């Protein structure tokens, strides 16, 4: 296909949704394709929409629609459009960066008259795929979400004229084609306008071909027709439109009357059953049920009578065959400041308050586990990175595992759920760790390809743990920054697991590190481990130390030790998996020693039991909690095992404890110590890994030798008998966090690293000879 640069008119129809409209206008600043104008058609609005539009004076055109009718509003925008292509996007949606670029590529095929991309509902509490490659029949039977062009094809011989369709939140047309069919039928005041246009275009011989790319991210806002994410709405308008659609299109396309009647009955009956179900579950009253039923009948009657006895309300005959002969060029929306606009939260509209001097970055962060579904070390760290990078103005996409595909916006990032099947590397099924790792890494790579295509991501950041970015790093598709943590090879050495499965995972980890554009280590200890465990040095990939950071809680949320009122019972908190590497066995040995000296102390142990995975249960036949109760029955009244706890409960535990202890045999950094210091709590850790770089021994807490339960018990007892020290260590720890270890400190470190890598990658690409230069050099 030739590289044709079409001009676009982006048409936004809006009424009473000023907040959502503002988000969309900010997001449009980031479009990579520059040849577009923006036309905002404002209905009879009662909010401050016009005040927001004044901020964009000279950059967009504002038109007015006298009625709250979406099709009328769409036609007003269509008449005024100067672009060859009219692209409609809902005022409560945000386009992907390459939205128009992708649509332009599709319209390079002169046969295509209409297209549209995927619609992701990204509200964090309601994420779903709303539309992808949809199809519809002349009787309004439809499949909105399909895996591919051959998925859910209707059976042959039904005679109901199935065609592909787009969703109104994301659809684009050649203006000439849409004008040729008379634009939108203005009977559709809210729904079915998009599907009706697709059917009429197809029946007129135009090619309608939506795409699985060019997504928009949708956050449905309430309107006069419905309250978002509730059952409240003027659903009878939908019934009216469906009946009208089925009769109008069914008759014109030769569908037998009995089939039309059967379909109408099915639809109306279905809506009635839905209302009855709402009443049964006490969502609506008996009076509301009666009113809804009467309105449904009214809607069906109006839809039928208008379809049977009135012509469609289209653009006037003098207009609907008109070509866009205006000599006026489009009014470009983008200006010189657009490139420096920070990313915007599509849900809340929040933006960075930082003044950008360089364009914001587009970053993909990988993490197999991720909040709010799973809180653990790597996922928590990635989440804090995403928060910090967003607050610095960057666009962040997080790829994490999910049972079903979907996208949500959470804590400053678009979170993409990546399902995977074990359908590759079948010859490696006898190595379950390797088999799972490679299959998931391939699934992530394929999702990254889509993100590169649609959202123009620039760089990928992956942990070593789970090696999510392995396939992408090997492919060379994008520069990959690697975050090393305690990974399989190190754990295998600690637990003396020398199986082929663990060994080969270690080889994959080492290859990932060697293919990295840069290694972002979290501590000096990690760099030493990289050299020792993975034989990685500066000759393999540059290494930059970026300490972890967390989001500081408000000062009033901290709870330093109360010197004015000494508590009757002191609480010691442990947080982490119950496994050998975390030092849980040493804590078990130390607890009775402390309780013999200080019987008023209570221990709270929060974390999932990992006795099966680390071999403890195989050796003892018991889980860690069961082992402790059997081994130390005299202590059970003073020790609580909570198991894995929610994030909210965890923060409460940090807040309410008096001393935090985590005697890990190795931590690449030790985020849990920062989490306790955040609430002004003194901490005890081991002189192992990166822990001494977080815990300042004798200032913010105490350090003991790993696998030294005697030292651990002595340190706990000494601190618990010194209220002044508990207070001073806690306050010093909080200040150390604010000075060095916030998530913004961490995000700035990663921002510098990403810019460095991108600059080096660009310089390397420029220094490489082009294919023509290579050919000339060999001729």
What is the element layout, followed by pairings?
Elements: E1 8-14, H1 18-27, E2 36-42, H2 49-54, E3 61-64, H3 70-80, E4 85-89, E5 93-95, H4 99-106, E6 112-115, E7 119-121, E8 128-131, E9 134-136, E10 142-143, E11 163-165, E12 170-174, H5 175-180, H6 193-203, E13 207-208, E14 216-218, H7 235-252, H8 257-280, H9 286-309, E15 362-366, H10 377-391, E16 395-401, E17 406-410, E18 413-418, H11 432-455, E19 459-463, H12 470-475, E20 480-483, H13 488-495, H14 500-515, E21 518-521, H15 524-533, E22 543-545, E23 570-575, H16 584-597, E24 601-606, H17 616-620, H18 624-631, E25 639-643, H19 647-656, E26 659-661, H20 671-677, E27 683-686, H21 691-694, E28 701-704, H22 709-720, H23 723-740, H24 743-767, H25 771-778
Helix pairs in contact: 7-8, 7-9, 8-9, 10-24, 11-14, 13-14, 16-22
Question: What characterizes the major β-sheet?
Answer: 8 strands, mixed
Query: Beta-strand percentage?
Result: 15-25%
Strand order of the largest sheet: 17-18-16-15-19-20-21-22
Q: Say which CATH homologous superfamily of the largest domain is assigned.
A: Spore Coat Polysaccharide Biosynthesis Protein SpsA, Chain A
Q: What is the count of β-strands? A: 28
Principal-axes geometry comes out as: elongated
Q: Please report the number of helical segments.
A: 25
- Architecture (CATH level 2) name of the largest domain: Alpha-Beta Complex
| Category by helix and strand content | alpha/beta
- CATH C-level of the largest domain: Alpha Beta
Write the CATH fold name of the largest domain. Answer: Spore Coat Polysaccharide Biosynthesis Protein SpsA, Chain A
The radius of gyration is 31 Å
Distance linking N and C termini: 31 Å
- What count of structural domains? 3
- What's the overall average pLDDT, rounded? 92
Low-confidence stretches: 317-323
